[in-house]
Specification:
This protein has a domain of about 90 residues: VSR Endonuclease (Endonuclease, Chain A), CATH 3.40.960.10. The longest helix is centred in the middle third of the chain and has 24 residues. With about 160 residues, it is α+β, with helices and mostly antiparallel strands. A 4-stranded mixed β-sheet has the order 1-2-3-4, sandwiched between helices. Helix content is about 40%, strand content about 10%. Helix 3 links the parallel strand 3 and strand 4.
Length: about 160
């Protein structure tokens, strides 16, 4: 059992950016040629990765912090259980609200869970790539009509 001081120290060391799962996804996508922005505060929820070319955002969620039900990494804490249930419920509600807001703004939201990156990193990256291709096709603007020069009836070059 950890003391209150030890627990406080452990919790203070947990980062919200540049986590190991986030770095793994960034590394894999970068080497496959995808370019992205990090933590764009202009978008709801400050997504971990923003790929403007694909009009897609990627959230890389920790299983505990975002309440990944059915995952071995999500275990409800025994101490101060009421606080943690409420906090994780708020995180889940906030994630859903941010996803709705991004959808309203015509962004594709891709969620990657920490547990997906253990032994299945290649499969997870393949899923992300498929989602990005679908996002690019979904929001691709229709081809423009050729312009006609006034009075000539000819296409403009």
């Amino acid at each position: 059992m950890t003391t209150s001081a030890q627990r406080s120290y452990n919790m203070s060391r947990i980062r919200s950016r540049n986590t190991t799962p986030e770095r793994a996804v960034r590394h894999a996508l970068w080497h496959k040629g995808y370019r992205y922005r990090l933590n764009d505060k202009r978008l709801p929820g400050t997504p971990d990765l923003v790929l403007p070319k694909y009009r897609a955002v990627i959230f890389i969620n920790g299983c505990f912090w975002h309440g990944h039900r059915g995952c071995t990494k999500y275990v409800e804490p025994k101490t101060n259980a009421g606080f943690w249930k409420e906090k994780i419920a708020r995180n889940i509600a906030r994630d859903e609200l941010n996803a709705q807001r991004l959808d309203t703004l015509a962004w594709t939201v891709i969620t990657v869970w920490e547990c997906e990156l253990g032994k299945n990193t290649d499969a997870t990256i393949a899923r992300i790539e498929a989602d990005l291709r679908a996002a690019k096709d979904k929001y691709r603007p229709p081809p423009r009509e050729p312009r006609i020069r006034p009075g000539t009836g000819q296409k403009a070059s």
